[in-house]
Amino acid sequence: MIINKPLSAIYIRVSTEDQVKHGISLQAQEDSLKNYAKALGYEIFKIYRDEGKSAKDIAHRPEMVQMLADAEAKKFQAIFIYKLDRFSRSLMDLISTIEKLKEWGIDFVSMQDKIETTSASGKLMFHIISAFAEFERNVTSERTKFTMKAKFQNGGLVTRAPLGYKIINKELFPAENSYIVQEIYQNYLNSDISLTQLAKKYNLSVNGLKKVLVNKTYLGKLKFAGEIIQGKHNSLISQELFNKVQDKLKK
Asked: Is 15 a catalytic residue?
């Protein structure tokens, strides 16, 4: 009597960075998962490969998208992955995708993490590991933001110079045309010229001109993560002139 074995999908992903840093290849993942699935009594339906793709966003991984479509169509009974971070680095993506697979009757197995959704203990371990992974990424993100803020406070990490400035070694310095900023502020404040006429005079769009007129960078300040901090660069206008321009803009 011939017994039909359940079918499984194998998903493998490796980014270019992974291959360089850790030497993790698609072939190594594939061989391990094929042996693991067969040992658990599954036949291989298809192997889905995303090479050189990030794990941050499922939507931009074509093979992942195709596999989930095939899962919804019930073309196989289980999905095997090498490790959770091969599948997704977002806790919300992981949880929501697993919930969809449960609705479709598709089991989920992570070989390295010893996680499967066919038992209560496997489900619990999945949530615990995912939560710790998300926590670690959040801590790393906070450290990165802290470091960037410290560099901003020291006047560094400037990526784009506004009109009147130039960037040297990621720091702002007055450019040869820095006098134009003072002219623009004075012309706007002390004449009846319209924003449209003033923008045309300095070869700017009206929106571009408005950005110049409200930009606190000209006061020697920098904006980071919604917070205004003091920079190390020289100001191009006085606080008094800036305030008077803001009053006129409001009126």
From this structure: yes
Beta strand extents in 29-140 (DSSP E only): 43-51, 78-81, 107-110, 115-116
CB 84 within 8 A of CB 115: yes
Strand partners, 221: 230
Would you kindly state where each structural domain of the chain is located, as residue ranges? 7-146, 154-250
Distance CA 116, CA 128 (A): 13
What distance in Å separates the CA atoms of residue 125 and residue 58, rounded to the nearest whole number? Answer: 22
What are the C-alpha distances in Å from 138 to residues 59, 135, 144, 145, 147?
22, 5, 10, 11, 14
Model pLDDT, residue 73: 95
Please give the average per-residue pLDDT across 1-15, as a whole number.
80
**Residues 15, 25, 32, 178: which is the catalytic one?**
15
In order of 12, 102, 117, the CA distances from 134 in angstroms are 21, 22, 19
Question: What's the predicted TM-score (pTM) here?
Answer: 0.48
Q: Which two tokens stand for residue 14?
A: 């490796």
Distance CA 93, CA 185 (A): 49
Pull the structure tokens for residue 27. 């072939």
Domain range 154-250, CATH architecture: Alpha-Beta Complex (3.90)
Output the CATH code of domain 7-146: 3.40.50.1390
pLDDT in tens, 137-195: 677 777 766 666 666 656 555 567 899 999 888 788 999 999 999 999 999 999 998 99
